[in-house]
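Reviewer has doubts. Consider these tokens.
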Amino acid sequence: MTGRAGTEGWDWFLDEAVVPEDVVALGSEALDVLVTHDVPAGIDLDMGLMEIPEAIERESYIVRSLLRDAVRAMEPKLVFSGHWHQRRTGLMPGLETRVHVLDREFSGGNIVSLDLQTLAVEEYKPV
């Protein structure tokens, strides 16, 4: 992407940028679990929790739209993501895909356990 907000090599890295070719490379074969940094578009987020410059918010929506397209193509049963520093769980519109948005590290809502046989997700509760 051109015109990115921030500084390449400092707060963003070219090889981390999600592009349409990445969605094509994922293909359309069904899978059980998709793990991604950002949250697919269609999952509600509380945008008031962080102060985000408009340029970054616009750019993020492009990435989130690409992730939405990937989820629509593969229809995973579960998606795990983060990035927005909040804990959310929701269904992708029009799909049976459950999306788990994990909170920032070292905070409640950041860790879940996944049973690989049943795909049951449980919140981590420290003892």
About this structure: Residues 54-74 form the longest helix (21 residues). The chain has two helices and six strands.
